[in-house]
Specification:
By secondary structure, the chain is α/β, with parallel strands linked by helices. 25% of the residues lie in helices and 29% in strands. The protein has helices spanning 3-11, 46-55, 71-80, 93-103, 112-125, 173-177; strands at 22-26, 36-40, 60-62, 85-87, 107-111, 132-138, 155-163, 166-170, 185-186, 190-195, 198-203, 212-213, 218-222, 228-231. It has a seven-stranded mixed beta sheet with strand order 4-3-5-6-7-8-9. Strands 10-11-12 form a three-stranded antiparallel beta sheet, with no helix packed on it. A two-stranded antiparallel ribbon has the order 1-2. The structure holds zinc ion. Residues 172, 174-175, 185, 223, 225, 227 line the site of zinc ion (ZN).
Length: 232
């Protein structure tokens, strides 16, 4: 199934068929139509928890677009890592900068495409600068090649999300420390297989998709952590 067909399928899901509570969030990163994507309420953003733990994060500011409805997921992931979470709109760099300066926030969760503008604000007005950045790239978006002052940070964990709050590709500590913008691990809870020349991605059951066609995925060697890498 390709992504357009998947969107049509999602729009037709009978929510009353779920036997346990689900959380609804937008299927698209922006605009209309407002197709809502159901995921089991117990689904967890495990790669975010892992990134926070491996970075030894002390506190996390979430600045993803409010439209994405990812705050409950990020809050739960931070709680699992025992890291306080502070949600802001991505346009609110001034408050984020004050929080970094006065409250010792060391980790920012933000869209890759918005991060440089926020970082420039930090660099202009603050002595402190976040140690860790968790950068979410929308599926289909180009990588941001010039990251400016963010490159002085210790770790840049990049994730590519298939839908808002649904990681397809994620990075470990080694990739984050290397500031690698192009090579990733498959997100936890997903599997990949090849059939009839197509590359198919499935959830292990907590998300409602099977055999989505994502032919752009390509093998990209082996990471220092020992796991295989993919590029997109
Ligand atoms: Zn790795």
């Amino acid at each position: 199934m390709d992504l357009n067909a998947f969107a049509q399928w999602v729009a037709a899901i009978d929510l009353s068929a779920f036997s346990e509570p689900v959380r609804l969030s937008p299927l698209f990163f922006e605009g209309e139509p407002p197709v809502l994507f159901p995921r089991l309420r117990r689904w967890a953003w495990r790669s975010l928890t892992a990134a926070l733990e491996s970075a030894g994060a002390s506190a996390c500011t979430g600045m993803l677009p409010l439209l994405w409805q990812t705050e409950p997921l990020a809050f739960a992931a931070c709680r699992a890592a025992r890291v306080p979470f502070f949600a802001l709109d991505e346009g609110n760099a001034a408050v984020a900068a004050r929080a970094v300066d006065t409250a010792g926030l060391d980790t920012i969760l933000i869209r890759e495409a918005s991060a440089v503008a926020v970082a420039n604000d930090f660099a202009e007005h603050n002595d402190r600068f976040p140690t860790n950045w968790i950068l979410v790239r929308e599926f289909g978006a180009a990588a941001v090649s010039e990251m400016g002052s963010i490159e002085t940070s210790q770790r840049l964990f990049r994730e590519i999300h298939l839908f808002p709050g649904v990681p397809l590709l994620v990075q470990c500590e080694a990739r984050a420390a290397a500031h690698d913008a192009s090579r990733f691990h498959l997100a936890p809870g997903l599997s990949i297989r090849h059939a009839n020349g197509a590359t198919l991605v499935s959830s292990d059951g907590d998300l409602p998709f099977t055999d989505l066609t994502i032919d752009e995925l390509a093998p990209a060697g082996t990471c220092e952590c020992g796991e295989s890498l993919l590029s997109l």
